[in-house]
Amino acid sequence: MQSLGKESEAIIKKDQRYLWHNITPYSEQSPPMIAASASGSWVTDIDGNKYLDGMSGLWCVNVGYGRKELAEAAYNQLLSLPYFPLTQSHMPAIALAEKLNEWLEGEYVIFFSNSGSEANEAAFKIVRQYHQQTGQHYRSKFIARYRGYHGSSLGALSATGQAQRKYKYEPLAAGFLHVAPPDSYRRPEGMTVEAFNLQCAQAVEETIIWEGAETVAAVIMEPVITGGGVIVPEQVYLDRVQEICRNYGVLLIMDEVICGFGRSGRKFGHQNFGIKPDIVTMAKGLTSAYLPLSATAVRKDIYEAFKDNSDGYGHFRHVNTFGGNPAACALALRNLEVLEQEQLVERAAILGQRLHSGLSGLLGHKLVGDIRSFGLIAGIELVADKGSKQPADLDIVKGIIAECKAKGLIIGKNGDTVAGFNNVLTLAPPLSSTDEDIQFIIDTVTAVLNGGWGA
Ligand SMILES: Cc1ncc(COP(=O)(O)O)c(C=O)c1O
After folding, report:
1. 447: CA distance to ligand 1 center in Å?
2. Closest ligand 1 atom to Cα of 284
3. Could you report the per-residue pLDDT of 196-254, keeping only the tens digit for each?
4. C-beta 222 within 6 A of ligand 1
C-alpha cells in the first residue's frame, strides 16, 4: 500500500475533526479509508490504492460501482421532475411499484421510504393498525430472533436481537420479543440439523402461546440472518414458521434489506424457500445503494383494510418527505433492468457456489469452525477450539481482516452484535464481480489464513 502524502494527511485530519463515523470507534492511530472512486468491484482510495470490495459497501452495491446508466437515469429524472411528495404521485414511483410486484411474484402495495430501518418502522405501524382495524385490538407484539439486525431507529433496534447495539440506548420500544435463531453449527450434540431447526421454529410457537396468541401481531425475520453471522436455516424452519404464523393469525414480515435484489441467487431471499410473506421490507440493493430508497411491500388484502376511513383514522397516517424520491425510483427501475439484462441474479447463484467451494478447503484450518453461504454471501466462523466451538478472539478476527485489507481485499465481520460472538468473517461482493474477482477473494482469504494464523 502506498504511504500517505501530505495532502492525504491533511484530508484525514479534517475527517477526524468534522466527521462522526457510523458504528466505528474513534481512533487517531487507524484513520478511516477515504475512498475517491470506484469501478466494478474495485474501490480506489485517495492515495491511489485499489481494493476489491468484498462487502459491496454495506452489502448493498449489487450491480457494482461506476454504472453510468444508473447515474443517467437519476440525472434525467432530476431534470424533468426532481421531487414530488407521495401524498400524491409520480410516474417513476408507479412504474417501480409495478415492477416490484413482478419481482415479488404476488400482489403487494408498496410504501416507499429512504432506509431499511424506516421500511421496518413502516411495517410495524402498518401491522398494528391493520390488526386494530380488523377488530384484533390486542395484537401489538412482535417476535424477532436473537442475532438478527433490523435497523438503528428505536423500533427497528427494538426488533434487533443484538444486545451490543442496544447498550446505552435502552429502554427501547416495548412489545418486541426474541427467540433463538436456528444456528445449526451450535446445535446440541447428537441432534440432527432438521430436528434442531424444527425445535427453533417451535420456539416461535411457544412464545406466541405463552404471550397469548391474541396479543401477537407479527413475526419479523430475515430469510437468512446476514449481518448477525450468516445463519442459514433449513427449509423446514421457514416452512414451519410460516405455518405457525398462519395458524395463529400472526403476520409474517420478511426483512429482505440484505437478501433482496439477487443477493441470494433469487430475486428475493424468501423465494429460495417458496414461502409467501405478508409484508416484505427492502432497501440497499433496491438502488444498489446509488441513492437512498427503501420499500415496504404489503399484501394487497392487508392494504384493503386501510380503505375504510369512516372514523377519520382508517388511513395510514405516516409520511416521510423524501421517501420515493422520483430520481431514486427512476434509478431503482434502471437498477432492476440491469440486474435482469445482465442476468446478475443467476450469476450471483453461480458465483456464490464458486466462492463457497473455493473457500471450503479452509475447513481444515485450525481456526475455521464452519463456512456457511447463501447465494453470494459467505460467512467463515472462526473458533479458538473446534471441539468446544469457543469463538475466536476479536483481535484475531480483526487481525485477519486487516491483513486482507493490506493485500487489497475488503472483507467484513459481524461486528458489535452479541457479546463474544463477533467471530464470523463475512463476504458479499458485487453480483457483477468477474471470475477473476472471485478467485482473488478466495486466494487472498486463503493466503492470509494460511499465513500463520492459528499456528
Ligand atoms: C437486515 C437488515 N435490516 C435493516 C437494516 C437497516 O437498514 P438501513 O441501514 O438502511 O436503515 C439493515 C442494515 O444493515 C439490515 O442489514
Report:
1. 31
2. 10
3. 999 999 999 999 999 999 999 999 999 999 999 999 999 999 999 999 999 999 999 99
4. yes
Considering the domain 68-341, what is its CATH architecture?
3-Layer(aba) Sandwich (3.40)
Does the C-beta of 400 come closer than 6 Å to ligand 1? Answer: no
Sequence spans of domains, the chain? 6-63+343-450, 68-341
Number of H helices, E strands in the chain: 13, 16
Residue 101 C-beta-side C-alpha neighbours within 13 Å: 14
pLDDT tens track for 364-404: 999 999 999 999 999 999 999 999 999 999 999 999 999 99
Residue 11 main-chain phi, psi, to 5 deg: -65, -40
pTM of the model: 0.98
Q: Is the beta carbon of 157 within 6 A of some atom in ligand 1?
A: no
Do 255 and 221 touch, CB atoms closer than 8 A? yes
Sign, CA torsion 340/223/121/157: negative
May I ask the CATH architecture of the domain 6-63+343-450? Alpha-Beta Complex (3.90)
**Residues 143 and 204: beta-carbon distance below 8 Å:** yes
Return mean pLDDT, the chain.
97
